[in-house]
Fold this sequence. Notes:
Elements: H1 3-15, H2 18-25, H3 29-43, E1 48-51, E2 54-57, H4 59-87, E3 91-97, H5 106-116, E4 120-124, H6 132-137, E5 143-146, H7 149-154, E6 158-173, E7 193-197, H8 205-211, E8 220-224, H9 227-235, E9 241-244, H10 249-253, E10 257-260, E11 268-276, H11 282-293
Helix pairs in contact: 1-2, 1-3, 1-4, 2-3, 5-11
Amino acid sequence: MEIRHLKLVKSVAEEGSLTHAGKKLFLSQSALSHQLKELETILGTALFQRVNKKMLLTQAGVRVLKTATSVLLEIDKAKNDINRFVNGDGGSLRISTECYTCYHWLPPLLKSYHKDFPNVDVRIEAEGTRQPKQFLLDGKLDVAITSCLTEKEDNTNLQFFELFTDEMVLVVEKEHRFARMREVPPEELKHEHLICYTAPDELLDIFQRVLTPNNIKPKKVSKIQLTEAIVQMVKAGLGISVMARWAVKPQLKSQKLVAVPLANHALKRTWYAVTLKQNQPNYINCFIKHLLKHPIA
């Protein structure tokens, strides 16, 4: 069956005759009659019967009409969605942030963004957290928020928009001994339970830039995937963590946690919004403008 066959069955069922259906489809009665015979030959059964000069569906015809209604409706929906996409008025915007699962900055930004694009469905793609670059290149992500400089330097298929710079700090509960210090010597971490993200040591800044070069080994290391889980464990006094200020901004503001810099180690990172370097729909370009206009740090 082809789309033209489905349109034919639907039109004849609605109009009750080939003549009226032909006018609706801008085809002659003989052309429609030929198409109907072709379809009935393909299916091996009659789809209509003539009763008092009116064409009524057979049982097989009712089944084809059900399929025609569903398929043609989905095609129309797809056309409308594609038109909205081409015009930049609507679609799905898939975002992810590298290394972090916190999106405290997103709701206020969306409130402003949706005034311009109310029909855009913004989705968080958690699977893209670990490999935002590859997800972008594979077409599974539209915007990645990342601090990975090697991507900026090495990949010509991506474009980077600088957002802000923040610092990796020790995050402790307010009664911890580090909370009373202006800065913490790295060697002090030998006595602590370090809670960090689930990733190889060489991909974590605290190991790559502080612990490993100075041969420092924490008393215990636990790796957890979710920011929220790490925060709750630190708040419970079960350990300390090293995180970006941006990631725990709400908790620091509420004074439930304390951030303390590491002595002699300014663990600063610049964050970027990253998209593919090609023509993007208006709603993606507008989202980037909102990111740049409304600081998320």
